[in-house]
Amino acid sequence: MKEHKLRALRAILILLTVGLLSSNASAQSFDKDANEIILTPYLWGVAINGTSTVGALPPLDVDVGFSDILENLNFAMSLHTEFKRGPWVFVIDPTYISIEMEAALPIPDVPPGTMEVDIWIVELWAGYQFHDNWEVIGGARYQDQAISVSGLPDPPFTPPIGVSDNWTDWFAGFRFNNDLGDKWLMVWRGDVVGCR
Asked: Cα–Cα distance between 88 and 146 in angstroms, integer?
């Protein structure tokens, strides 16, 4: 039952996102003197690849494609919010992803447990429109990741097993707003990130 509800929720979120993006694009004017608030919900197509170590567990190779993430998705949301005043723009852009999947350890005779991954990415930045379609931007990107594993035999594993980390990166770059007609807008963005 839970799986059917999640699939229905995913379909509703995707349809809502597409509808809001198309209506939002038609409402944007990019008038240098206008004061606007722009809300844009969206979804990312993500994949996870690397090595993960959780507590005393042995390192695990992680290679999760987009279809696997979609299948194991508990919840995801993103909401890009812009406050425009004249040539200035101030943005908050939070993204949250919660994934739950089976975790098979490379240890003989140990049944698989359940791994939960929670990720927050929040951007706060400001920009200045110096040309009709161009903005210079700069700000901070906060990331928080938490991984926990449950359902493993006790002993040898003592629950709860988990690890978390967070960090902030500074970035600067440019944004180009390409008007594709009355109802469509394409935004291109590039930035350089300063590592923590």
From this structure: 35
